[in-house]
Amino acid sequence: MTALTLLDYASVLIFALTGALVASRAQLDIVGFAFMACITAVGGGTVRDVLLDRNPVFWVGNLTYIFIALGAAVFIYFTAHKVESRYRWLLWLDSFALAVAVPAGMAAAMVMLQPGPIIVLMGVATGCLGGLMRDVVCNEVPLVLKQGELYATAALGGALAGLAVMQMTHLTMPVLIACAATTWGLRAGSLLFGWQLPVYKSRPPRQ
Amino acid sequence: MTALTLLDYASVLIFALTGALVASRAQLDIVGFAFMACITAVGGGTVRDVLLDRNPVFWVGNLTYIFIALGAAVFIYFTAHKVESRYRWLLWLDSFALAVAVPAGMAAAMVMLQPGPIIVLMGVATGCLGGLMRDVVCNEVPLVLKQGELYATAALGGALAGLAVMQMTHLTMPVLIACAATTWGLRAGSLLFGWQLPVYKSRPPRQ
Amino acid sequence: MTALTLLDYASVLIFALTGALVASRAQLDIVGFAFMACITAVGGGTVRDVLLDRNPVFWVGNLTYIFIALGAAVFIYFTAHKVESRYRWLLWLDSFALAVAVPAGMAAAMVMLQPGPIIVLMGVATGCLGGLMRDVVCNEVPLVLKQGELYATAALGGALAGLAVMQMTHLTMPVLIACAATTWGLRAGSLLFGWQLPVYKSRPPRQ
C-alpha cells in the first residue's frame, strides 16, 4: 500500500466521522448519516482528481473508501449520544482530517509530477473542500471561513512546509510528515490557544 | 432511443419543472426560471458523467436536453399561478424526478460495466444532487436533508432493488423498472403516510 | 497571447477582486481573502473546462492565473478600508467581471468548434458560476438570483449578441467585443436605471 492510499484511507475515515457528526446535529436518519459521511469523506479528493484528470476518481476505482465511510456513519449513529460535546469532537476530528487530507492532496499531485504551486493548491483544496461541502449542504457556518481561526491558513502552512522539505529531499515520506505535522500543529494551536492572523477590520475611509 | 436516453429525457423534464417552481417561489424573472431549471435538470447527471468520465457530458453532446429544460421553464412561468399550492406540486414533481433520475444514473453506470456498489452510488448521486444544487443555490432547506422523510433513503432503496433484480436477470428493463417503482413508492409513502426511518435523537451522555 | 488567454486573465483578476471584497465583508484574515479570491476567480472557468473536457484545466496548466488572484487578494486586503461603499464597488467590479467572463467562456467553446447553443451556455456558465460559488460559500444572497435585476439575463443577452455576430463574420474579435459590450451594457443599465424583466408574481389561483 502506498503512502498516498494510506493517507486517502485515513482522510476518508476521519472526514466521514465529521460528516456523520454534522448529520447527528441535524437529526437525520441513518441514510442521511451515510449521505453526509460520503460527501464529506470523498468531496475534497474528488475535486482534486477531477482537476488533475486522474482516472478513475479514487473512490470509483476502489470501493473500500465508500465502505469505510459507511462504517464511520454507522459507528457515529450508534455512539454519538455518548459524548458530551459533539461540537468539540467535530472540531477536533476535523483538525485531524485536515491534517491527513492536505498531504493526501499533495501526494496525488506529486505522483503526477506537477509543479510546486499546483502541489500546494491541491493540498489546500483536498483539505478544505470536503468540509466546505459538508457545511454548505447542512447550512452550518463553514469552518474554513470562521473568523479569527486558522483553517485555510493551517492547510496552506502545512502545504508550504511540505514544499520546503521537498526542496531538500527526494523522499516522499518526510514531505508528507512535515505537511501533516505543520497543518495539525497550526490548527490545534488555533483551537487551544486562539492563534490567529489579524482579521480584516474595516476602518472609516480617509477624508 | 435507448432506455438510458429516455430516462435522461424524463428526468431532465421533471427536474426542470421543479427548478422553475423553486424560481417562482423566489420570484425570479424568466431567465432566472431558465437558469434554475437548467441547473436542477442537468446537475445530477453532470456530476455522474464527470465522475464516470463519460465524454461528452450528456447535455453537451445532445442539445435536446437543454431545450426540454427551457421549455419546462417557460411552461411553469406562465402556468404556476394557476395551481393552488406550488409547494405541494414541487414535492410531488420532485418525487417523480427522483424516481426517474435514480434509474437513469444506474443505467449509465451499467452501460460502463461498473461494479454493483458504483451502480448504486451513481443512482443515488444522480437522483439527489440536482435537487440538492437547486435547494442550496436558492437557500431552501434541501429536500434530501429534511428530517423525518425518506429521500436519500428512497433513492438508496430503489437502487438496491434494481441491483437485486440485476442479480436475477441480464435484461436492463426490469432493473430500471424495479428501481423506479421502489424509489417512487418509498418517497410517495413518506409524503402520504409519513413513512420514515428513526431519526437520530441525542440523549444526554451516560453518567 | 490569444484573445482567450487575455480574457481569462482579465476575468480572473476582476473576479478575484470581488471575491476578496466579499472576504472583507466577512472579516476574514489574509488567507481567507486569498481563498475566496481564488474560488471566485477560477470557479466559472473550471466548470467550463471540466464540462468541455479541456485538459489541463486552464489554471492548472498556467500558474499565472493563481498568482494574479493572489495579488488581487493582497491588494484588496490593504486597500478595501479606503473605499466608502464596498458593496457598491463589489457590484460594479462584478459587472465588469461578468462582461469579460462571458466572452471568455464563449471563446473556449468556439475554439473547440462546439455548436452555437453550447457556446452560449458556456458563456453564461463561465460568467455566472464563479460569482455564484462566492456567494453560496459566504452565504450572501447570490447576485445571479437577486430579484428584479438583470444578471443571468445580461449574460444571456451578451452571449446571444455574440452568437448573432458570429453568424455574420468568421473573425473572433467582433464576436467577443459584441458579447462583452452587450453583457456590460445590460448589467450596468440594470444597476443604474433599474432595467429589469417582469418578475414572476404569484396571483391567486383561478376559481
From TrEMBL, chains A, B, C:
- Bilayer topology: Multi-pass membrane protein
Could you tell me which species this protein originates from? Roseovarius aestuarii
The record's similarity note reads: Belongs to the UPF0126 family.
Protein name as catalogued: Glycine transporter domain-containing protein
Q: Does the keyword Aminoacyl-tRNA synthetase apply?
A: no
- InterPro entries, per database record: Gly_transporter (IPR005115)
> Which parts of the sequence belong to the Glycine transporter domain?
6-80, 91-164
UniProt cross-references to PANTHER family, sorted A to Z: INNER MEMBRANE PROTEIN, UPF0126 INNER MEMBRANE PROTEIN YADS-RELATED
Q: Where in the cell?
A: Cell membrane
Return the Pfam families for the record: Gly_transporter (PF03458)
Signal peptide position in this chain? none
Q: Which GO terms describe its cellular component?
A: plasma membrane
Q: Keywords of this protein's UniProt record, alphabetized?
A: Cell membrane, Membrane, Transmembrane, Transmembrane helix
Q: Which residues cross the membrane?
A: 6-23, 30-51, 57-78, 90-112, 118-138, 150-169, 175-197
Record carries keyword Cell membrane: yes
